[in-house]
Amino acid sequence: CLNPSVISLVILALTAVLIAPLGEEILFRGLLYTSIRKRLGIGLAAITSATIFAFIHHYSWLGSVMIFVDGVAWVYAFEYTGSLLPGIIVHALGNLFWVARVYLLYRPVM
After folding, report:
1. CA angle at residue 42 from 93 to 56, to 5 degrees?
2. Ranges of the chain whose pLDDT falls below 50
3. Residues 76/46, Cβ–Cβ less than 8 Å
4. Which of 60, 38, 62, 58 is nearest to 48 (CA)?
């Protein structure tokens, strides 16, 4: 039988490292950004979509600024490559780092 904390960690990791980056990049860069880019242009659309992206994460002020910068960078990567894949990969790696940090800080002492 698996330890419930191991199951929780696996669910967290799958959600944060696979599902969230894929879903968020499709939603924010693939749908939101591309639809408002047609009306606002690249710069204003990047700022608008990154602002909404940062807002939905509910982080502190500094955390929101960091997420905003990520959102703008992933728009740039999308525009440069024509693909959501670079944003998905970097987003997933950032979330993997976060999951590893949480695990290392809060794992039970053996």
Report:
1. 50
2. none
3. yes
4. 38
Global pTM value: 0.85
What's the token pair of residue 14? 């799958």
pLDDT at 44: 98
Residue 25: predicted pLDDT? 97
Structure tokens at 97: 């780092």
SS (H, E, C) the chain: CCCHHHHHHHHHHHHHHHHHHHHHHHHHHHHHHHHHHHHHHHHHHHHHHHHHHHHHHCCCHHHHHHHHHHHHHHHHHHHHHCCCHHHHHHHHHHHHHHHHHHHHHHCCCC
Token pair 């703008």 is found at 72
Residue 50 C-beta-side C-alpha neighbours within 13 Å: 22
- Using CA atoms, how far residue 1 sits from 13, 51, 107, in Å, is 20, 44, 19
Give the H/E segment covering residue 91: helix 85-106
